[in-house]
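Dear support,

We are seeing what looks like truncated structure output for some complexes. This example has two components. We would appreciate it if you could run it in full and send us the complete token output so we can diff it against ours.
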Amino acid sequence: MISFLLFTLSVASSCLSQYWQKHTALLFHSQPHLSLLQKVFAKPMLLAVISLGVSFVAWLGVLSQWDVSAAYPLLSVNFVIMLVVAKYAFAETVYKRQWLGVTLVILGVALIAGGEQ
Amino acid sequence: MNKLKSAPAAKHNVGLGYALTSVVLVSAAQLLMKWAMSNLAAYDFIDTGLIRLAEHPPPYLFALACGLICYAASMLLWVKALRTLALSKAYPLLSLSYGLVYLGAIIIPALNEPFSWLKMTGILLIYFGISLIFKKPAKR
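Here is the complete output from our reference environment:
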């Protein structure tokens, strides 16, 4: 149960980190003249780094409990969540083909997770 | 002869090299961290004492540090790879690391994870799914 919560925390904060990484990239693109210090201490950058750290520590907790051959591919739910985030938070176009891909990823994840029960 | 190669093609190859190295590194990182964490999980840190652990570090701590370094290096190489390599090539490559980690986990005796067709089928589905997500849109 704890390992499941850790896994969820790891995936959630990794997605959060990617969300803030995208904002960091957008910020650097819109303000190309920021100094290195301003870049390092920019709010989206700090949030991206902190959530990446949380995700990493939670992941180590997962590894102490689960087989890595099952846990690692389960991380691909990340792609599913990020495609939804790309569509709704960043208004990117998502094609049918990509939803089909997401369906395959979910099926794969379900097979692996189901086999571990 | 190599100089005749067009610049974009050469750049693409460099990107491919970065991406493949990154994939190998991230797979190694997962296996190292798994080995370290499953052994460290058996440690009673309160009983052992963190200071004594620091004086006589078990090999797992070293493996954990190596895993962390491989992980960080793979992230840096990944960012470099993405500069020249199309996402449609890069992400299917990254999902190869699921296969590598799976192979490593069942082959390496210290990990000794069970082989299963179900897991392998799942990994294949994920690979094709990610290939579809990042496939280049057809040219009109």
